[in-house]
Design a protein that fits this description.
The protein contains five helices and six strands; from the N terminus they run H-E-E-H-E-E-E-E-H-H-H. By secondary structure, it is of the alpha+beta class. It has one domain. It has a six-stranded antiparallel sheet with strand order 1-2-3-4-5-6, with helices on one face. A hairpin with a 4-residue loop joins strand 3 and strand 4.
Length: about 190
């Protein structure tokens, strides 16, 4: 039902569902997505910026908890999902955010899916469908109290997924209980 409502909303709004090819986007490759523990932590998620010298601007907005993120901003909650901000006008329907689903391993990242209105995550949720619910002052960033639906992960499981990011070279060794938790989550997701 949620997907149908989103589709109906998008069909009634006269905005392109894909990138505006007349606006240059930020170049993004799988090589841009590395160990999330090397990014800057902010209230349980991590940020970076793909444009040299722009990290301070990204951190300023992230730490303020509201405002418009600058182009090149990278926002990541869990290793397999990430958002990248493009210049204004690149994708009106997503407020210039591009959504990515990643396959991560010890050798790096591969982009499984990328796009704007059509990316669905491992939990079966449409990225835009959730992020569009964030109130305007939060620039589509979902946190508690921002207007988004809650995610199906506890803060503890989210932190465990972050600490065990396969791209981080085994910096964190999970306990036996944490391994069991991760195995149960993988089974639940069909992995």
């Amino acid at each position: 039902m949620k997907k149908l409502c989103l589709l109906m909303l998008l069909l009634t709004v006269e905005m392109p569902l894909y990138a505006d090819e007349t606006v240059s986007g930020v170049p993004v490759t799988a090589g841009d997505f590395n160990c999330m523990l090397d990014m800057e932590p902010v209230r349980g998620f991590y940020v970076d910026n793909l444009i040299e010298g722009k990290l301070t601007e990204t951190l300023s907005v992230a730490n303020a908890g509201e405002g418009e993120y600058p182009p090149g901003s990278v926002v990541q909650l869990v290793p397999g999902e990430v958002m990248v901000k493009h210049p204004r006008g690149y994708s009106a329907v997503t407020k210039d955010w591009e959504f990515f689903e990643l396959e991560v391993s010890a050798t790096g990242s591969e982009i499984g899916k990328r796009g704007f209105a059509d990316v669905v995550n491992r939990f079966g949720g449409n990225c835009l469908g959730c992020h569009a619910k964030a109130r305007p002052e939060f620039d589509m960033i979902c946190e508690t109290g921002h207007g988004c639906d809650p995610i199906p992960l506890t803060k503890e499981i989210t932190a465990l997924l972050q600490k065990t990011d396969a791209r981080c070279g085994g910096r964190y060794t999970p306990t036996t209980e944490e391994i069991q938790t991760l195995q149960a989550l993988a089974a639940q997701l069909g992995g």
